[in-house]
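cron nightly-structures :: item 1 of 1
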Amino acid sequence: MRSITLIVIHCSAVKPDQTSSVAQIDSWHRQRGFHLGVGYHYVIRRDGTIEPGRPEWMIGAHCVNHNAHSIGICYEGGLDIRGQPADTRTEAQKAAMRKLLEELHGRYPKAVILGHHDLNPQKDCPCIKNVAHEYADLQPK
């Protein structure tokens, strides 16, 4: 079993009129050379549906140098209508993300929750100002 020390939040970097399901992201990642397809463990759609990606036991492909010990969660969105980075999470996505993070925290209580940009400052992803602060109550004690 993998030792999970991080839960990394991502966005799919699509505009409000675009979609990004696990199937679509799987196709995009395969086109980029990810031979195992979708690199995230979960994708949260705008309606709050949580789609499973890679199984948790499998190493993800979502954050260079951190995949072996992390779970990757991606929410559909992250760009405004002009294509600029923005926190575009719907209320349904926020509720679903909180529920998923609570479940993951129960399984991995020592895992720190943060955004992709916290590990790679060159990235805007997940376009949420302060992931660690937003989920401070779920951080390791």
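cron nightly-structures :: done
The mean pLDDT is 96.
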